[in-house]
Amino acid sequence: MTEQPKIFVAGHRGMVGSAIMRTLRAQGQDNIVTRTHAELDLTDQAAVRAFMQTERPNQVYLAAAKVGGIHANNTYPAEFIYANLMMEANVIHEAFTAGVKQLLLLGSSCIYPKLAPQPMMESALLTGTLEPTNEPYAIAKIAGIKLCESYNRQYGASHGIDYRSVMPTNLYGPGDNYHPENSHVIPAMLRRFHMAKLEGAPSVAIWGTGTPRREFLYVDDMAAASVHVMNLDKSIYDTHTSPMQSHLNVGYGEDLTIAALAELVRRVVGYQGAIVFDTSKPDGTPRKLMDSTRLASLGWRAQVPLEDGLRHAYADFVRNTSTASN
Question: What are the binding positions for substrate in this chain (predicted)?
């Protein structure tokens, strides 16, 4: 029997990290190392060094990040850029010094310019101005990509390391953040329609005109893509990337309008009232769709249809959110 690799999942309690844990365990992996934030502060270089030197994993999934919505990014830009830069620098560098050969960084579609051509290709990186509201977070994620690329360029041949990056579209699913102010669009809608159903509200207001188009990916699909990319043979991976552009987009492959999304969420929640659009609120970017052609050519496509994923996410919300039973 082939010995299982020792795998460190950084951020295993987060939405993406916990989905990666589910995927690995479903595939029979049980040699998995985890640490909570209380046990290991990834912004502490000495602590990360001691951990890596002691554990010496074979693979590292860097799913840990400080994340939040527009309000949080606008309010705490220093915390977002500092924490994410430090986590990436510490984990990637100390993984290298401990002899870790395989690492996968999980990023975000916000790395692309605000006005990038649609659908967004990997080549759009660093071709224009970022969205101002989350620029600090995006800069940190871009730095993470370039850290991986730089270590590969300098040490790949001599040390046999292979550090990769994946950039997901908008994610949703079990373990999402349903905070009233800091959540993203799907968890915010699930919460709003659910509360309206409980309260018997005649309508639910959605920001903007409902015409912007967005793409959404179920988090367990993202986890499956991450494990797929981690385990791709290097010769195959390298034929679809380059040393200066090594990241891969991970998307569902289709988008829909915010109005259509609201209608889907209403049906999933079972809300009977009306949907109204508050056109005094901003729409944001007209369209955000990832070009995931490269990943598809490497043998992976999303499996969970949006409505099915929304039903799983809503069940998770009802099961785990205290306000759901109030």
Answer: 192, 207, 214, 283
